[in-house]
Amino acid sequence: MQSILYASENYAELDLYFAEKKVKKILLVCDNSIRFLRLNEYFESLENRSGIKVVRFSDFEPNPNYESVVRGVELFHKESCEMIAVVGGGSAIDVAKCIKLYSNMDSSENYLKQEIVPNDIVLFAVPTTAGTGSEATRYAVIYYNGEKQSVTSDSCIPGTVLFDASVLKTLPIYQKKATMMDAFCHAIESFWSVNSTDESKQYSKEAIQLILANMDDYLSNDENANAKMLKAANIAGKAINITQTTAGHAMCYKLTSLYGIAHGHAAALCDKVLFPYMIANTDKCIDKRGEQYLKESFNEIAAAMGCPTAEKADEKLAHIVDSLELESPKAKDANDIDVLKTSVNPDRLKNNPVKLSDDVIEKLYLTIIT
Ligand SMILES: [Fe+2]
Questions:
Q1: What residue spans define the domains of the chain?
Q2: N or C: where does the chain have the smaller number of CB atoms within 10 Å of the terminal CB?
């Protein structure tokens, strides 16, 4: 069970946490954006105040490469670090997760080819966006020779997470909107996923309600709402940790690479067209629990969104995406639609409760880009 700490003004809870861990040296995985955060000063002064040495590792890129993780594992061993802390967004957290998983593997062989043997190295995370929920999931994504690799292990879920609302203060507004919608899409996709459980649905419901209740204040940078959004993203992460994401996420990746829009922006555009299509096509249900169960799930999503019907809920989602000015990209080329269509991994569609034919996927993409 993951423990949650809430940041105070002077991070006294962190002092206590590190004292309890009885460590002398920490590997701190962070990107350069840490210099804008007050947490940076905390880690800079940690050795003077408590004798705990901090070894920083920032030699990785967004969508991190395998080689970067290898450098992190080497540094972890060379410096004899005793635990790993990560301050960052999804990429930094993915790097930290992989460093932990690979730290007890044979360094003379490719880590991706070895079996993961869980280890008890402490992993502590401070998410700097309220969106990916990566700090709550067993998944990490890295790239090997340009190919996306999904690394999955329960043992890479950070044992403790710090919610520090101040990290969201300096986040550009577009990033705030996009990451919030990423969390929202995690919550609704998990809700309708064929893998949903009572537990995952409870997480989804809670995340949806928290996001909607705090959206406006979060976008105005209210400290309390920022903290609530960190919590919502974490809970939505717990939901997809059980169910994985569905067609909206399967379709959104190419929109990001083709048009340069943020991941959460792309996911929101996909779910905006997917949701009404699925409500109108429950007869194509592939969830083993049946069409009626799926209709009830849509009604439960609507209730969580404060709407009387599923149709009203999909209208509300569209309204939110539009009011956030998360606009649709315009096709640059006649080939765009073919590039998009062929990008969707059919395996990932299996979590989606409504069967989507190639023609339907093409139609949905056309609705997005034209
Ligand atoms: Fe996502």
A1: 3-167, 172-369
A2: N
Ligand 1 centroid to residue 264 C-alpha, Å:
6
CATH of 172-369, one of 1.20.1090.10, 2.120.10.30, 1.10.150.750, 1.50.40.10: 1.20.1090.10
Q: Separation of 182 CA from ligand 1 center, angstroms?
A: 5
Q: Which two tokens stand for residue 59?
A: 């030699």
Name the pLDDT band for 161 (thresholds 50, 70, 90): very high
Question: Each residue of 209-254: pLDDT tens digit?
Answer: 999 999 999 999 999 999 999 999 999 999 999 999 999 999 999 9
| Residue type at position 331 | A
Rounded to the nearest whole angstrom, what is the distance from the C-alpha of residue 323 to the centroid of ligand 1? 20
- Inform me whether the pLDDT recorded for 348 exceeds 90: no
This prediction has a pTM of 0.95
**Ligand 1 centroid to 267 CA: how many Å?**
7
Residue 53 exposure: Cα atoms within 13 Å on the Cβ side: 8
- 3-167 CATH, one of 3.40.50.1970, 3.30.70.330, 1.10.1270.20, 3.30.565.10: 3.40.50.1970
CB-CB contact of 86 with 140 (8 Å): no
Residue with tokens 């309390």: 224
What is d(CA 33, CA 103) in angstroms, rounded to the nearest whole number? 25
